[in-house]
Amino acid sequence: MSDRENEIYDVVGIGFGPSNLSLAIALEEYRSKAPETGITSLFFERQPSFGWHRNMLLPSTTMQISFLKDLVTFRNPTSSFSFVAYLHASGRLPRFVNNQDFFPTRQEFHQYLEWAQARVADRIVYGAEVKSIRPPSDTAPERSDRLLLEVSEGGGRTTRVVEARNVVISTGLVPSMPDGTERDERVWHSSEFLEQYRRTDPRELRRVAVAGAGQSAAEITRFLYDELPHAQVCAVIPSYGYAVADDTPFANQVFDRGAVDDYYFGTEQARDAFWRYHRNTNYSVVDDDVIRDLYRRWYDDEVRGVQRLEFLNLTRVAGVKRVGAETRVCLRGGPDAEVRELDFDAVVCATGYDPMEPAGLLGELDPLCVRDTAGRYRVERDYRIVTAPEMRCGVYLQGGTEHTHGLTSSLLSNIAVRSGEIVDSIVARSTGSGAERALFAEVGGDIR
Ligand code: FDA
Ligand code: NAP
Fold first, then answer.
1. Per-residue pLDDT tens for 279-290?
2. Which of 75, 77, 231, 275 could form a disulfide with 416 if both were Cys (CB 3.0 to 4.6 A apart)?
3. pLDDT band at 326 (very low <50, low <70, confident <90, very high)
4. pLDDT tens column, 2-40
5. Which CATH code for domain 2-173+355-442?
């Protein structure tokens, strides 16, 4: 146990991706405008340093949102933490504008996130994995105004315990593999792609498969085709061809702040309509330019009489087994739903993610968190899990709220606004009044 026991913070954040980075900035802007309220915070991140989906930082991949949907602008357009402020600080603002593109590369956005996190670094602990949240042992959980967080540091060598009046869980999406498929040194999920690829001798990759028809799959297929000129690349796709991500202006409104209210307060039919009509803004779809890139490569090969890129349409991976050095993939599909097995040197499962699941962290607190009839957490509009009324501390979610708040739950579009709403809620609850909330709005914390 460390000598830092009894540290108490108003807010402890678990996970430090873009969502909690945006929250740390919202708290910082609140603190600098209203220092007398003295809200304290600390964030724990298990990675050794800041990293946003590093294993998918492939060359020339671009953001899927406008650069204006950065960490702050939709909450506070005058913030010094905006993407434009970052461009200005790095001397690239005129050249960025000359480029006339709303969608920076993921590489550049990553640099922006790193720049922003460095400015709040005194509140982040890297290499620190939160293992559990529990009530103090001397207090009945439902009467507790503080929670204890157990944090493992130094790769498990030390354990630190901190106390929090509010916890904000933002641990991100959970990689999903096809049924009957375990990861190993030649069976990878897209979330570990670059790390595994760099560990492998490219000469050994003569025949590779990529499963999935989403953005990750298409980007990895293009990357492997370009990086491995000697290899056959086989795309296993459940649809008849990649489907385009709808980012046209009317459909894009599903990511607006108003859509969160419409979803949250809407009827069951209204919520269903969001998914029925607009799932194709995000899931199992690919940006138009990547689709065209792939088609062009495939067609150019055909003209040259080669076939390096193969598409197995209407097909899913139904399992993978190791047979000697071979990775044998069981495929189900095609027009007649036949089952067959093919051998590859490596298989990348770009098969998506499950939503953030906080139950493991909540442990003993979980029974005090209210669930709906489908077993999902009930969540207030301010992103706080509905808990037993006597439990005075707040457990907030950034992620894992698609069922209550809609499509933006796991995305970047709304993180600036959401972080402001969480700060509003924490401030209002800590003071027991709406006065500070109004102050935050006044200082540009909330532009609603
Ligand atoms: P994120 O997953 O980024 O961060 C969670 C953090 O928590 C991680 O750093 C993890 O290490 C840490 N963590 C987990 N458990 C922990 C624990 N117990 N203790 C301590 N730390 C812990 N969306 C969009 O709107 N536009 C886009 O362009 C993209 N692009 C994109 C590219 C790729 C390759 C993927 C896979 C996804 C996207 N997304 C996206 C969607 C994506 O969910 C979103 O960009 C953010 O990553 C969401 O940020 P979060 O901070 O919520 O999660
Ligand atoms: P995704 O959109 O959920 O796509 C997963 C794909 O895998 C779907 O096509 C799915 O098909 C398929 N699949 C699932 N099980 C399969 C199986 N057994 N065999 C074959 N295919 C299978 O996941 P993603 O592409 O990783 O995207 C996740 C999020 O990250 C999205 O928000 C996306 O926009 C984002 N992203 C952004 C960028 C970028 O910004 N440049 C890059 C990558 C990802 P079904 O739908 O039929 O199940």
1. 999 999 999 999
2. 75
3. confident
4. 445 568 999 999 999 999 999 999 999 999 988 887 899
5. 3.50.50.60
Which residues on adjacent β-strands are paired with residue 371?
377
Residue owning the nearest CA to atom 35 of ligand 1? 53
Q: Is the CB of 290 under 6 A from ligand 2?
A: no
Task: Tell me the two tokens of residue 142.
Answer: 């439902």
Strands (E), 135-226: 147-153, 158-169, 174-175, 187-189, 207-211
Closest residue by Cα to atom 12, ligand 1, is 15
Does the CB atom of residue 52 touch ligand 1 within 6 A? yes
For the chain, the 3-state helix, strand and coil shares in percent, each to the nearest 5, are 40, 25, 40
Summary mean pLDDT of the chain = 93
> Is the Cβ atom of 316 under 6 angstroms away from ligand 2?
yes
Name the CATH topology of 175-245+283-353. Answer: FAD/NAD(P)-binding domain (3.50.50)
Say yes or no: do domains 2-173+355-442 and 175-245+283-353 share a fold: yes
What is the residue extent of each domain of the chain? 2-173+355-442, 175-245+283-353, 251-281
Cα(420) to ligand 1 centroid in Å equals 19
The confidence band for 136, taking pLDDT boundaries of 50, 70 and 90, is confident
